[in-house]
Amino acid sequence: MVGHVDRRLPAGTRSVYGIDLGTTFSCLARVSGSGEPQIVPLADGAQTLPSVVLFVGADDYLTGQTARQLARARPDDVCSLVKRRMGDGDWRFVTRGAAWSAPAVSGLILKALISDATLATGEPVEDAVITVPAYFGDEERRATVLAGEYAGLHVVDVINEPTAAALSYGFARFEIGGRRTLGGPGTVAEEVALVYDLGGGTFDVTVVELADRRVSVVAIDGDHQLGGADWDEKIVLLAGDRFLTEHPGAPDPLDEGDSAQALLLAAETARRELTDAPSTTIVVEHAGRRSEITLTRDELEALTAGLLDRTVALTRAARDAALARGVRGIDRILLVGGASRMPAVARRLEAEFNVPVELSDPDLAVARGAAIYGEKKALERLVLADLVTRGQLVDGAGVDAAAPADLDAACRRLAEVLGLPPTRVRRTVEVQVVNVVSRGFGVLALNRFGEQGAVFLVHRNDRLPVAVRRSFGTVRDDQDAVTVYVVEQAGGVESTRVEDNKVIAEAEITGIPPGFPAGSQIQILFRMGFDGILEVTATHEGMADRPLTVRVETSAALSQADVAREREQVARARRERGGIPGAFGAPADGRSRRASGVPTERAAPAVLPGSADLADLADPADLAVPGDRTSPVGPARRAHPASAADGGDDAGLRLRRLSPPGAGGDPPSRRRRAQRPLRDLRHPAGRGRHARRRGGASPYRRGLGVLAARP
Ligand SMILES: Nc1ncnc2c1ncn2[C@@H]1O[C@H](COP(=O)(O)OP(=O)(O)OP(=O)(O)O)[C@@H](O)[C@H]1O
Ligand SMILES: [Mg+2]
């Protein structure tokens, strides 16, 4: 299909590849000419590429299996598990005179995947859907998009890994060779599956309702610092201890980079072996001594029981959240992620949840599902354009808004142009992914006691799209400006404490004319579309029809200057193929070191803790906007913060979830700003008087001089 499409319709109809950018392994898939999602083999014939980068010069790198194998000789030049650093703007891998951010290192992995795929398919890889753990927050998602852009990709979308796995599973289960295989002819079968995804570095659990061509996410939970690598670490520590017991007085193998690397590799191999065998041997060689350590599966399971417990607790939480949302129960558990192969996983889950547990293509399902979704996006884009051109659909509407006959005709026309069976186009376009909010989002505010904290407007597992409005009020008479800090839940549960949240954006209403008393209403509206992009609108009651000066700042991971430099750096980087002398040739310079703790070019995020600027005194009953929560908010557009900063097309403050760095964000400023607090209107007891009375006692106010500005 692909070559065919490219020849006839060069723009907008290329394959959209699905890429699983994994913590330990990555892979890439596309939908074949016959409509099946297939893994694209890599240059060495493997289906997955170890997500490991070995730097052999300032601009030269190796990746994949070779990098992994050579890691022992160059521990200071090897970067692995970089996905765990995504979204951490201060982290750099510094080696051989160059510093690499997490998106830049990931960009190198993607470049390697792309070049192998281009060799295999003979076509350029330009458009891709990249998968992310469901539990990834805003900055991690943006970092992933940036990694794709560094590698020269147009990232069509990011999709949650478990959702992609469920799509792939649903594809295999509901449609093999074009026939529906579940529920029989004419029936629409549905089942509720819990996707347990234990990969190399992240754990995601997702409850989905599955039907033919449809995946509806009901609940998600997870921990992006939990995966096979943690099991390996336990083994490494045990092996190190046993080595030291056997050789008292010997130096600790974990203190030396190459021995520690070797031990890590051996631990991972041992763990895989214990999936099939009851016992295995780990060889530790260090400082001229050698130990052969026997490890049994029972020992491994005892050693790592606490890790498995953590996954079970999160699984239970997701199950309970789904039940609370009206799901009738879990029909089966799907295991994805390579580490879910460990026999203890299925055994424990069967015992805990008493439903069938199925290992479902654990290494490749995610990339396959992303390819299915990518094809859907590619064909849908064309069908939509056709319908809009014919005046059968308004611009921005989804395919489900089209009249069935119009949609059918558009699919037929496209099928003809592309030389595809019409049913395939129709069914691909019909693929539907219904998602939920992955984290709570809110604003920083002062409560009725004058204490600052996060007030959440949307919550994890709220079904998308969502729209919630809430009223706040100014604190002072004649308050002329208001700063709004948008926060994202940082931990596993929502917490009102400022330090448990991450400020993802900040915006400001300025130029409020004098004459408004304390308690003037500021309405804040959060809307999140199907794509999970948050849009925040804030309006001062007296200024709904007046243009406002709005400035949007971000605590985004990288400044524009960083992004421009790194784009160039990744583009320049040359990938060496395995076995090249350069891998051992040039000695690492003395400054090579692991990145954590290395000073970086960028300092603290723009928003400093303690600078909350809204007071919330609202009654929880006021929160929901009746009818608003469930009504579609239309396709959210990614907006340049710069354009939002122009004052926007609407009256009121308008601030959108910020584009990936490089797409036009202002460089973050680090100055502490003056305080312009708000409080809620709806609590008469809290109006003005209350806030003022309490004001002096609040550490926030004391510390930041709000009292001085008080009337
Ligand atoms: N047979 C096996 N037994 C046990 N563990 C295995 C087996 N095969 C692979 N693994 C483990 O699976 C993990 C890799 O899984 P996978 O490729 O799904 O993760 P990933 O996509 O790199 O990570 P993530 O999804 O967390 O980003 C590694 O920790 C690896 O050791
Ligand atoms: Mg994975």
TrEMBL record:
The keyword Zinc does not apply. Residues 612-624 have a biased composition (Low complexity). Residues 684-695 have a biased composition (Basic residues). Residues 572-711 are annotated as: Disordered. InterPro entries: ATPase_NBD (IPR043129), Heat_shock_70_CS (IPR018181), HSP70_peptide-bd_sf (IPR029047), Hsp_70_fam (IPR013126). Gene3D superfamilies: 3.30.420.40, Actin, Chain A, domain 4, Substrate Binding Domain Of DNAk, Chain A, domain 1. GO terms for molecular function: ATP binding; ATP-dependent protein folding chaperone. Keywords: ATP-binding, Chaperone, Nucleotide-binding, Phosphoprotein, Stress response. Belongs to the heat shock protein 70 family. This is Molecular chaperone.
